[in-house]
Amino acid sequence: SRTVSFDDGPVNGWDFFSMAPPDAALRDSNRQYAIPSKSLRGLLRHIYTIASDSKEESADINHLNPVDSLFGWVGRGPNQALMGRLSIGFGFFDNPSLAWFKIPFPYGEWHYSNRQWRSSPGTSADKLFIAKQWRIFPHTPLAPIVQQLDDFSPDTSQASYFRAVLPGSKARFTIRFWNLDDLELKRLLWSVVLEPSLAHKMGHARYLGFGSLRLRLLPASYLIDWSARYADQPETAWQRPIQVEDWLTPQVIYHYKALKNALNADSL
Hints:
Elements: E1 2-6, E2 9-14, E3 18-19, E4 32-35, H1 37-51, H2 66-71, E5 72-74, E6 81-83, E7 86-88, E8 91-93, E9 98-104, E10 110-113, E11 116-119, E12 128-130, E13 134-136, E14 147-149, E15 159-165, E16 171-172, E17 175-177, H3 182-193, E18 200-201, E19 212-213, E20 222-224, H4 226-230, H5 235-238, E21 239-241, H6 244-247, H7 256-262
Parallel strand pairs: 2-15
Antiparallel strand pairs: 1-2, 3-4, 4-8, 5-6, 7-17, 8-16, 9-14, 9-15, 10-11, 12-13, 18-19, 20-21
Helix pairs in contact: 1-3
């Protein structure tokens, strides 16, 4: 981050996450930008929670809801913790384009409807919930209140300043999983790739149009036939390419219509 001091206090400018020292003075200009694995995990866990209707809290290790059973769970007392059955890596960008932005406070009076942003002073930010429980931020273009800057150059403490990755940038990350049954794999793959008209949402200032991204499985993605691998067969025998269309089954997705509506990215 960067910091500038005003009479009413310091103002921070938050750079996008990178694999670099926390001290801005020690960072290389060619540092590796990335999406933290924890953020990607949280993104997918949230969608999987809805898709599996995991609204009931897990009572104990013998009575886990679907999302805790897959992503892992920590309860109270001895022997009440379970490691998840999937591992998610960092999403490393390849030469991303970035820019600084300023969002003045407050911004809750801005509302997006009928493909337009409108300001209504004295009102609060809209909130979209699925099943009255899980909040989803709809996809929108950037709100008019958002200002793109040439650099971190704050002029007031009554604003948020941050650096964001611009549209068109691409990152890659790896998901490894094990011991999933067919139902879990179908829900996980749907939660990752969604459908052509849908997109994910994550990160800062999602309400104002930031954080939209699409995830795609690379052609090299595969399942492992463990019996063939342990039989010392060649990679072509135990690496089974994932045919995504064979696994996308909307019938196993809870709240499917609500998710399709909330994640619709036609406005982008």
